[in-house]
């Protein structure tokens, strides 16, 4: 899909597109950038030259990472590159800045897995004639809420990504929005299940509006907070990776079992599904790869494109 021209100025369009993707997603490998930006090129040499142009101009930096016996480069924007992208104003500003220490740190694999999850949606959208591009998911967007179970606290729900996808069927276009959580088997099943509580609480949260000063003090309930941001409440997708298929299958079964026995989740309208990154990459989101976490299993089309989707 086409991209608008943007800073860093004086560089080719592909280099500018790469700068946008790096700004949005923080740390991306060369091959991920190739799949996202230049899939029409059989080989990645052209993209590599554009990335090195960014590096020579001081807009980007890279570090090596060993994977499957080979070294690949992981790219991020420097402060100069980030400010250059921000100057154009096409992307939502992000305070986070990547560094060599962070690129080599413990969050490296998780950051790359989130990008890989988004890339799976992009590639299958391209194949199916749907709409989802490299900038159609945003990592770590804060959603503030309060929970009756924790009175007096202001809580913050931060999905690994919020992803937008336009599903097309003939003349019908359906906007799908997903909350994405990527789990590399680093947390316990109990903590993973606790995330369901946070999303269920956010679904129900209605902020309270205080009457203007000088009038009779009263509280007036407003509509649910998520309705200010989304036309329909996003589905929650949990994507598991970082272990053998057998271990991930057991993890999915344990998560469903724990959620089913939790009375706090018995009445939530939250739509939540779980799959593995390998299944998502191999088959795409519209094949039967997502197992609903809550309630009985449903056909994948009914789960992903049910009545909570919004017309685009």
Structural class: alpha+beta
Can you tell me the residue ranges where pLDDT is under 50 for at least 5 consecutive residues?
1-7, 209-220
Helix content: 25-40%
- Shape assignment: globular
Strand-residue proportion: 15-25%
Instruction: Report the C-alpha radius of gyration, rounded.
Output: 21 Å
Distance between the termini: 18 Å
Average pLDDT for all residues = 87
Separate helix tally: 10
> Could you tell me the number of beta strands?
14
Largest sheet: 7 strands, mixed
Present the secondary structure layout.
Layout lengths: L12 H13 L2 E2 H8 L7 H12 L3 E8 L2 E8 L1 H10 L11 H4 L4 H21 L8 E3 L3 E3 L9 E3 L3 E9 L2 E12 L5 H16 L3 E3 L8 E3 L13 E6 L4 H16 L11 E5 H7 L7 E2 L7 H5 L5 E2 L1
Parallel strand pairs: 8-11, 11-12
Antiparallel strand pairs: 1-3, 2-3, 4-7, 5-6, 7-8, 8-14, 9-10, 12-13
Describe the structure.
This protein is α+β, with helices and mostly antiparallel strands. A hairpin with an 8-residue loop joins β9 and β10. The longest helix has 21 residues. It is globular. It starts with 12 loop residues before the first helix and ends with a strand. 34% of the residues are buried.
Brief rundown of the structure:
The protein is 36% helix and 22% strand.
